[in-house]
Amino acid sequence: MTPFSLATERLVMRHLTVDDARLMLDLLNSAGWLHFIGDRGVRNIEDAQRYIETRLLASYARHGFGHYHLARRSDGAALGICGLVKRDTLEDPDVGFALLPNHAGHGYATEAAAGVVRFAQKDLGLRRLVAVTQGDNVRSIRLLAKLEFTFEHLVRLSDDDVDLQLHAREFPPS
Q1: Is 5-170 CATH 3.40.50.1380?
Q2: Do residues 111 and 70 lie in contact, with contact meaning Cβ atoms separated by under 8 Å?
Q3: What angle do CA 164, 139, 88 make, to 5 degrees?
Q4: What are the residue ranges spanned by the domains of the chain?
Q5: Which residues fall within 8 angstroms of residue 31, CB to CB, at 6 or more apart?
Q6: What is the per-residue pLDDT across 17-51, written as a single tens digit (0 to 9) for each?
Q7: Model pLDDT for residues 73-85, shown as the tens digit of each residue
Q8: S-S: 13 plus which of 6, 64, 106, 139, CB 3.0-4.6 Å?
């Protein structure tokens, strides 16, 4: 796998590894993740390592992109994840982001997602990105609007899932 690195003014992103299990354990069990994304059944470091291997590393191999480890440049503090997901139920790649609760509200998610959107357009040559969110996730909806995503319609990712808002952004041909 080719090493990946993406830097913004305050942040640096890289491929996740099984060594990031503590970050993923904390993130997947945070109140925001559980409420807005859902319980993934990750309860210990071994579960988190398995989640990274089967879900995150598999995406890099299959699609050439995925979620990335997000850290603050100034001190290397792990903040969360941000990246692209290719879901079987959606035609276009999906921008996703999640921060540990103590790092929310500082503009990191907006900065990271903007960097990922630029990467998707310029480096991957994607013409369209989508993002899905629950209707009550006001912060994510506001962030998507800042990144020029517009609401298109409601979608369900699986038969037993809730209705989610699908937002999209198209890029002009280069």
Answers
A1: no
A2: no
A3: 30
A4: 5-170
A5: 101
A6: 999 999 999 999 999 999 999 999 999 999 999 99
A7: 999 999 999 999 9
A8: 6
